[in-house]
Amino acid sequence: MTWLMSPSPSLAGALTDWFGATLIAATVVLIAGLAVRYLKTPFLKRVKPAFRVLVLGGVALQVVALVGAILFSLILQNLNLMRERQAFTAMQDAQREIRVAKREAVSLRDALASASSGQQVLQDENQDLKQSLGEANAEVATLEDKAGIVDTFKDQRRLKVADRIALVAALMPFAKQRVQIFSIDGDVEGKKYRDDFVRVFERAGWDHAGKNGVVQAAFDVDPVGVTIILHQVDARHGHTNPAINALIATLKRRDLFQGGGVFISDQVPDGTVKVAIGKKNPEVASRAGPTRASLVGSLGAYR
User: Fold this and answer.
1) pLDDT tens-digit profile of 78-109?
2) Cα gap 38→49, rounded to integer Å
3) Residue 295 CA neighbour count, 13 Å, CB half
């Protein structure tokens, strides 16, 4: 029954031709039989039976034709439904493949966007670094190139362009290092020199906690030049971190201590470095009178 209910197109065509030929043959046989019978019987007896036979034969042929038409209609309808199902299944498979291809395309675009974003971040960071160094160079060069400003402040200490660039380059790899910057209360020249160091630390990314870490203070003993004050335990046990070592080494290499040095104190928070900008001349005496016995230090360990 499977081959009959779901025939191939060639089989359906062959069956159709076979039923047509059978119908023609049956019609011919029927007509021949009627003709023979008609010739062998009297005229009156021939008319009535012949009429009845023709009627019955016509009805029979109509029934046969109708049944055949219904059968083949069902067969062809089943065949069309099967083809439509196959076409619908093929369309669903194609749509599924399209959805998969779209998802893969979206994933690929996301991956490319992520890679482009990472590359852009690196380029932005590199550009920021170049811009920071360029701004430091341009800012100080502009001040130094103006003759009036140079003449007016020729007796003041200021960080030169080369000093600023060297300090920023040395300290930038250690961003987030905690630092406190002091100048002597009432020392206007020292405050301006201190602000030069503040800008260097900011460009290098060191953390001075805003205004809380940049102050003018009164000292028992006025510091001289640039003084680095470390945590007591750190300095004695050699626990100074690379950031502090880089700061001390650069100050020494650029000859920026100017009579100052490296000292230790139990008042410095652990992990923090204090930078004190002292008097310009080492002959300045203490206002309060105590000796420097509480500040012990040496620059020899930092080369």
Assistant:
1) 878 888 888 889 899 989 999 998 998 888 88
2) 9
3) 20
